[in-house]
Amino acid sequence: MKTVNPMKPSARMRIPRQHPAERVAAERAKSFQEVSLGFTEEEAVLEATRCLECTDPVCTEGCPVNIDIRTFIQKIYEKDYAGAVETIRATNSLPAICGRVCPQEEQCEKVCTLGRKHKPVAIGKLERFVADFAMRHNGSAASVERMRQPQSVAIVGGGPAGLTCAAELAKLGYGVTLFEALHAVGGVLRYGIPEFRLPRTILDEEIRRVEKLGVKIVTNFLVGRTATIDELFDEWKFNAVFLGTGAGTPHFLGVPGENLSGVYSANEFLTRINLMHANQFPRFDTPIKLGKRVAVIGGGNTAMDAVRTAKRLGAEKAYLLYRRTKAEMPAREEEVLHAEEERIEMMFLVNPTKILGTFDHWVRGIELQRMELAEPDASGRRKPVPIAGSEFTLELDTVIEAIGQSPNPIIQSTTHGLETSKKGTILARIGQQTSRRGVFVGGDVARGGATVILAMRDGRMAAKEINEFLHESRNSQNFPESLGAKTSTVAIA
Question: Are 255 and 297 in contact (CB under 8 A)?
Fold first, then answer.
């Protein structure tokens, strides 16, 4: 691979990692506007200059969807931003989203060669820069000719796995229909992630681009109720089905007081705000009663999203309660830092034992027990152990539980022969193929709770396997020439 940057590696290493401007913490904690303002063009080019253009770009290996990171960064250095975003889109259909919410620090940036002695290249923020640039300048407006295949595929679920699988199959020329149970597509990207991390204008634009590839989107359609998987095959005549329905059934602690008014799952709380606009009541019809003292239980990104959202809704005291220490928190480091800047009060090594209520059954507080960490177990993780007699109470108005989620069981219960795990996830036998012929799966419905980029990886791999499956089916069924692949033109913006 040739290099495009004539600067010596030693000189590149002396350039500090660039940091985009952010909204002031005191102001943003009252607003749902995006926290990070993103790189300016000057900052992006300077950050791209830091790339060492490695002969063996291990960053691509660290990316679940194998973006050609070296090449797209080289194109930023050359100020070929359209070329940069097209390089990304070759394997990632949602770059403006991934540039904002993917844990690059645990993936591509973690293995960046520059990061061995210095701070790694800000790959995620560069991805966001070129994706946003393309949106502002209408990206590539060229029409693309591709072969139109005779078979059709149903995509069940409009989250990151479903959107990715739909886009990849549409690029291959298949007729693709995406069925979404809610009234708007996006899945966890829409109902789970707040606007201050992922603006809806960005999400909507990425979805429009998937539609422009030729994907038909049908909302308010609950597969398993509106139509079963068998009906999609037998009556709708789809040749393959991809299941990407996510994990939307919340877990609960199982402690006394969980039935009190003022106790929410993070899933319900964030859905009310992000999807149903409860923060804009009465302009929108979904109210939410929060109170001034709010505690969120958990230590992941969903917990961070929930507690920072509560702060923005006017909570005077917004607590995060976590049974391990800060070092064990699975939330992204950047999100933890932003929460601290916004004066979220984090309490570590505490575990709820009881939610306390008033005479009229509203939350008035929570009983907590202090914990200590035992030695690491076989997995390497230190288990929290309760300290006897250490219970204390915290006065609260609202409790939000963010301790994990499982798949909704509707499809599993209405689809004969679909193998599932004890946790309710749909099992894949080989690759992304399920026990049902022609049915493929990916994302949280297969993995349990995981990241957006891993769901996208599953969607991309499933599209490849569905293409192979349909090719084999077409050959075995001897499709007449009149039903063979035809040329169609799709405009991509």
Answer: no
